[in-house]
């Protein structure tokens, strides 16, 4: 299976968070099992990319993570992508067309879409309010990353670079990207 992060980049380069939400919530999209998040190393800090944030927002787990007192970090790129999605959610653009798994077109008004995404929006705002933004500086990256970066959105790229430069663990939900 292709890592979900590569699928997202192929699905919608202009809106990585929209791609992440779409892929994670679509039952037809084949996904790897979540990695085993158990660790023997105690960590009180974690870096999040758009896929981790989308997962936390979709499941409602953002509330629990914030309550855990774990220090949350995201890159400037990730923050900008999440804010972009929240701003687009507020636009009154007349609605959107999508399709059901059987291909039947479905129209949703902007208000219907805002109602359907209210939990996600609230979870995102909670994360943004409780996450520290980090800027990526120059990082000497492994060759493997340089070969992969074209298939990754700016959020994932900057999060990997931050994980390497700061040694803060990356909350990665894609099994293949954790290896």
Q: Note the run of SSEs as H and E.
A: HHEHHEHEEHHEHHE
Helix fraction bin = 40-55%
Termini separation comes to 14 Å
Please report the total strand number as a whole number. Answer: 6
Classify the beta-strand content into a percent band: 5-15%
Structural class: alpha/beta
Tell me, rounded to a whole number, the average pLDDT: 83
Global shape: globular
Rg (CA only): 16 Å
Could you characterize what this model shows?
The chain is α/β, with parallel strands linked by helices. The chain contains 9 helices and 6 strands. It has a 4-stranded parallel β-sheet. α2 crosses α3 and α5 packs antiparallel against α9. The longest helix has 15 residues. The two termini are 14 Å apart. The model has no long low-confidence stretch (mean pLDDT 83).
Secondary-structure map:
Elements: H1 4-11, H2 16-25, E1 45-48, H3 50-59, H4 62-67, E2 71-75, H5 76-90, E3 96-99, E4 105-108, H6 110-116, H7 118-129, E5 131-134, H8 143-148, H9 154-166, E6 170-171
Parallel strand pairs: 1-2, 1-6, 2-5
Antiparallel strand pairs: 3-4
Helix pairs in contact: 1-2, 2-3, 3-7, 5-9
């Amino acid at each position: 299976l292709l890592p979900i992060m590569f699928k997202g980049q192929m699905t919608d380069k202009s809106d990585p968070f929209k791609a992440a939400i779409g892929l994670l919530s679509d039952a037809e999209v084949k996904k790897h099992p979540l990695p085993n998040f158990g660790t023997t190393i105690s960590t009180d800090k974690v870096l999040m990319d758009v896929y981790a944030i989308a997962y936390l927002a979709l499941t409602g787990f953002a509330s629990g993570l914030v309550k855990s007192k774990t220090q949350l970090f995201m890159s400037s790129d990730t923050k900008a992508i999440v804010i972009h999605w929240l701003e687009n959610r507020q636009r009154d653009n007349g609605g959107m067309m999508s399709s059901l798994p059987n291909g039947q077109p479905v129209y949703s008004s902007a208000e219907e879409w805002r109602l359907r995404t209210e939990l996600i929006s609230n979870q995102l705002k909670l994360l943004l309010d409780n996450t520290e933004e980090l800027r990526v500086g120059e990082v000497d990256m492994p060759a493997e990353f340089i070969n992969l970066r074209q298939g990754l959105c700016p959020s994932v790229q900057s999060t990997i670079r931050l994980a390497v430069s700061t040694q803060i663990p990356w909350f990665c939900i894609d099994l293949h990207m954790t290896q």
